[in-house]
Amino acid sequence: MKITLNGQEREFEGDAGFSVSEMLEKLELFGHPVLVELDGEALLRNEFDEREVSDGATVEIVRMVAGG
After folding, report:
1. CA 47/CA 51 separation, integer angstroms
2. How far apart are CA 51 and CA 20, in angstroms?
């Protein structure tokens, strides 16, 4: 399965889609503060388990960090 992740094509094993939460686990970002946009729509954290990333999806992930 191929998606566009932060402007770069990325391939994942298998043909079936997966939830945003599962994608974050695959990317080792689950549990980190992130903002996710799926096909142009910003998602709330409580939607991560419900929303499916399918073949051809466009995903933008921004990791939030604190600083001064």
Report:
1. 6
2. 6
Longest dimension (CA), the chain: 43
* Residue positions counted in the chain: 68
Measured between alpha carbons, how far apart are the two ends of the chain, in Å?
39
Q: What is the pLDDT of residue 68?
A: 65
**On the CB side of 41, how many CA atoms lie within 13 Å of its CA?**
12
Q: Answer yes or no: are the C-beta atoms of 54 and 18 closer than 8 Å.
A: no
- pLDDT, one tens digit per residue, over 6-28 is 999 999 988 889 999 999 999 99
Domains in the chain, start-ordered, CATH in brackets? 2-63 (3.10.20.30)
* CB-based burial, 32-46: b 16+ in 10 Å, e otherwise: eebebebeeeebeee
